[in-house]
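Feature request, filed as a ticket because there's no other form

It would be nice if the structure record came with a short human-readable summary line next to the tokens. Right now we just get the raw output. Example of a typical job, pasted below so the devs can see what we mean:
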Amino acid sequence: MSHIPLTNEKDLLQRLIDGDHAAFEIIYHHYKQQLAVNFIKLLKDDDLATDALQDLFTRVWNNRASIDAKQSFKAYLYRIAKNLVIDFYRKAAHDKTLHDLLLRATDWYSPIEEQLIKKENKEIFDSLLDKLPPQQRRAFELHKLKGKSYKEIADIMGITPTTINKHIYQASQSIKEQVLKSPHLFRVIFIPIILAYL
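Raw output as currently delivered:
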């Protein structure tokens, strides 16, 4: 079913509150696509995103009596979505399977990096870099912070581009792992990322 425009959302919400399943279906099909896209961006796995979307709308249906039709329903949905994603990452910090899944999602590094290199997070970023082996740290800083190409770094460090790639990959994985394992870093790094997508 394609995206359906809502002509009278307040009326639909009132019908939903009253237990009208047809109204629920219309609301679901209106919002599901954008929520699914955001869940995929944040959870990095189609199955996890599908489960989160199902969980979100199950909560909407089960808690329909508490919905305030006068308030923004979109904001209500995105608040539930944000909480689901935050709960997922908290669980991932203690669940090896989820933890490994996140570490394999290598493109996660980009938003993590963006948060870490912000001025207010410089001290945190420096402390993470301090834990890297010297060669990894140097290659990582030259590429990520100074924008050097692999060839330029190879010339500077006297090692092959393949080794540079290995150092940068391992440094990125190490930083991600440190962020995922730390409740403090989770709050500082992941919650702003989650808010940006939702």
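Something like this underneath would help us a lot:
The longest helix spans residues 21-43.
The chain has eleven helices and no strands.
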